[in-house]
């Protein structure tokens, strides 16, 4: 709980170096599971993302109910992820596929022409309709998927999903923090707006 708090009207999720529960770092993950889930609409999230080697912020969604079975068959919607070594690039992705153990995905990236996503707030959005999802950054579309894009796999994205906000430290994609990684690292969320 000490790693998530409100400051100046904004949600802050903070990752910091400290020995806790067998790990060398602490952070927080906030979920709306069993509190609020969504099906379709436009989701706008204005946030500032942390960067640095080993830092992996994400704003994403998982199914409220595993209607089609365990991950990834029931789906995952990544509204935005950032790998800290590429502070100017974000990823928007969905995961789907056959039963547990093998994930397929459809995603794309967006890169700033100058600066990093930690410099200022940006609005990360999805426009989610039956059989389609579109990703936008500051109102500009950069990726979309439709039912046809999942091929013969189950299309799981016509169900209720809930939101997750977290700042991971380490992991296969982000790698381990290095000597030049600055702590603490914070994700700041100004607002979450869901239009249905």
Key attributes of the depicted protein:
196 residues; mainly beta; eight-stranded antiparallel β-sheet; seven-stranded antiparallel β-sheet; 15 strands
Q: Using the alpha-carbon principal axes, give the shape.
A: globular
The SS-based structural class is mainly beta
Query: What is the count of helical runs?
Result: 0
Mean pLDDT: 95
Distance between the termini: 31 Å
What's the oligomerization state? single chain
Radius of gyration: 16 Å
- Number of distinct beta strands: 15
Spans of at least 5 consecutive residues whose pLDDT stays below 50 are none
Q: What share of the residues does DSSP label as strand, in percent?
A: over 45%
Biggest sheet record? 8 strands, antiparallel
The helicity comes to under 10%
Explain the overall architecture.
This protein has 196 residues and is an all-beta fold. It has strands at 4-7, 10-20, 23-26, 29-31, 37-38, 41-48, 55-63, 76-81, 89-96, 104-111, 122-129, 132-137, 140-146, 161-169, 185-195. Strand 9 (89-96) and strand 10 (104-111) form a beta hairpin. It is globular and about 45 Å long. The mean pLDDT is 95.
């Amino acid at each position: 709980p000490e790693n998530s708090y409100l400051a100046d009207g904004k949600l802050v999720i903070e990752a910091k170096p400290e020995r806790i529960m067998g790990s060398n770092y602490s952070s927080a993950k906030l979920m709306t599971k069993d509190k609020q889930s969504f099906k379709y609409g436009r989701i706008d999230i204005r946030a500032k993302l942390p960067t640095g080697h080993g830092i992996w912020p994400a704003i994403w969604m998982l199914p409220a109910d595993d209607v089609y079975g365990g991950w990834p068959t029931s789906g995952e919607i990544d509204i935005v992820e950032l790998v800290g070594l590429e502070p100017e690039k974000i990823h928007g992705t969905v995961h789907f596929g056959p039963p547990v153990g093998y994930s397929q995905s459809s995603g794309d990236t967006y890169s700033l022409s100058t600066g990093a996503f930690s410099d200022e707030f940006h609005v990360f959005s999805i426009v989610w309709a039956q059989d389609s999802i579109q990703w936008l950054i500051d109102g500009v579309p950069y990726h979309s998927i439709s039912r046809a894009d999942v091929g013969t796999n189950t299309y799981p994205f016509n169900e209720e999903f809930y939101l997750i906000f977290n700042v991971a430290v380490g992991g296969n994609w982000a790698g381990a923090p290095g000597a030049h990684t600055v702590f603490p690292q914070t994700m700041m969320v100004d607002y979450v707006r869901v239009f249905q």
